[in-house]
């Protein structure tokens, strides 16, 4: 199959991969300062937007696009560091709920601020409408339920 690409443009997959590598490398510098991995960061950010009672650990893993064992390992490490707490759900004792501690919320706020500062120039290259459009399109590409 031969895919035609207009002159001066690169294939979409190549552009997405290049941008991903660039953003990931820059993000890693900030995360390293806080002893966080990329997977750990995604877990914490999902908990930061969770309801007040927290979320089941398996749901956090799904939302962060992590394996269940990775989420469990990270939650163990973050609990030891005082960034989150885990407890059994009062409604279903088989479920483990995870919730950020105040220290965890401060950490997410601090890291998010540094990342926003780091990527602000990149995002500023797009208008507000372009940012919304790109966000909507990328979300659609990532959402397996929206394929089609």
TrEMBL record:
Cited SUPFAM superfamilies: Winged helix' DNA-binding domain (SSF46785)
Alphabetical GO biological process terms: response to stress
Top-rank taxon: Bacteria
All residue ranges annotated as the HTH marR-type domain in the record: 9-143
GO MF annotation: an example: DNA-binding transcription factor activity
Lineage: Bacteria, Bacillati, Actinomycetota, Actinomycetes, Micromonosporales
InterPro entries listed in its UniProt record: HTH_MarR-typ (IPR000835), MarR/SlyA-like (IPR039422), WH-like_DNA-bd_sf (IPR036388), WH_DNA-bd_sf (IPR036390)
Pfam family, one: MarR
Protein name: MarR family transcriptional regulator
């Amino acid at each position: 199959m031969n895919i035609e690409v207009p002159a001066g443009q690169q294939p979409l997959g190549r552009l997405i991969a290049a941008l991903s590598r660039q953003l990931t490398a820059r993000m890693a510098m900030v995360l390293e300062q806080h002893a966080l991995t990329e997977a750990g960061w995604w877990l914490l950010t999902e908990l930061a937007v969770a309801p007040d009672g927290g979320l089941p650990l398996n749901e956090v893993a799904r939302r962060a696009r992590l394996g269940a064992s990775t989420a469990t390992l990270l939650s163990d490490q973050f609990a030891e560091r005082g960034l989150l707490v885990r407890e059994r759900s009062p409604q279903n004792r088989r479920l483990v709920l995870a919730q950020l501690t105040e220290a965890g919320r401060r950490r997410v706020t601090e890291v998010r601020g540094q990342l926003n500062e780091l990527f602000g120039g990149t995002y500023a290259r797009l208008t507000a409408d372009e940012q919304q459009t790109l966000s909507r399109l990328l979300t659609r590409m990532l959402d397996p339920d929206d394929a089609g």
